[in-house]
Write a structure and sequence with these properties.
six-stranded parallel beta sheet, 8 strands, alpha/beta, two-stranded antiparallel ribbon, 53% helix, 251 residues
Length: 251
């Protein structure tokens, strides 16, 4: 069962992006947990879209995900610019917390994977304090290679979680989930990037004024100037959308 059969989408350069708002997204994913149907959730931004356009294997991962939500402001802008608007931005960090709230309501089990041993432990402890009825079924840092995949997967499967959050960076977390999702069989498997760093207190999320102005990317760039090469994908994406407006939403 593919997510697009139940959730209206807009294709952005061939990647089907959900058009629904946060509330509808959470309702859909809550039902996925209840039915135990595995879903890979990708929180798409322009950098990921550009990476997919340059790498057929990554494009296939994006296309095969059961749900792709418009995390990046640029993705929201592109849909609107091409007259196929999405309802709103669905930020991955916020979606994580919305799902945790549902976990609090239903007593879901959560597994956390990624980041450093210190960050993942602190993240687990803070989430447990914030959502006491959620069961933190297990956690493991992200510093492991392919030779440890089977062991890591076995450990996750043993806990039978409802949600699996993976923080290993967009270039590795999405491919890892896609490669192993049939073995994992978790209802919701979602890459969450730097969310654990924010939750643990290691780094700060962009202030509300940046989020309201839709320039979180600028805040991250100011905090980490070394990201500038990655950020070059943003103007490239915008230029490609403008130049190829008639092709952007064609399947």
């Amino acid at each position: 069962m593919k997510a697009e059969s139940a959730v209206p989408t807009v294709p952005i350069f061939g990647i089907r992006v959900s058009k629904v708002d946060m509330a509808a997204t959470v309702a859909y994913l809550t039902e996925a947990v209840h039915t135990r149907i595995p879903h890979q959730v990708i929180t798409a931004n322009p950098i990921m879209v550009m990476a997919a356009l340059e790498d057929p294997a990554y494009m296939e991962i994006m296309k095969s995900a059961e749900l792709v939500v418009p995390d990046g402001t640029g993705v929201v802008w592109a849909a609107n610019y091409c007259k196929e608007p999405v309802t709103e931005r669905v930020a991955g960090f916020d979606l994580l917390h919305e799902l945790m709230q549902q976990g609090e309501k239903y007593g879901w089990k959560i597994y956390l994977l990624g980041s450093t041993p210190e960050v993942i432990q602190e993240t687990a402890e803070r989430l447990q304090l914030q959502y006491p009825r959620v069961i933190i079924a297990g956690y493991h840092d992200g510093y492991f290679g392919p030779e440890s995949d089977d062991e890591i997967i076995a450990g996750i499967v043993k806990t039978n979680p409802d949600l699996l959050f993976v923080a290993r960076g967009a270039d590795s977390q999405e491919p890892w989930i896609a490669k192993h999702k049939s073995k994992l069989g978790v209802p919701i498997m979602m890459g969450v990037g730097g969310s654990f760093d924010v939750i643990s207190g290691k780094s700060k999320r962009a202030p509300k004024v940046f989020r309201k102005m839709r320039i979180e990317w600028l805040y991250r760039l100011l905090k980490e100037p070394t990201r500038y090469k990655r950020m070059l994908a943003l103007p490239k994406f915008a230029l490609k959308v403008v130049r190829e407006k008639d092709k952007v939403t064609k399947v």
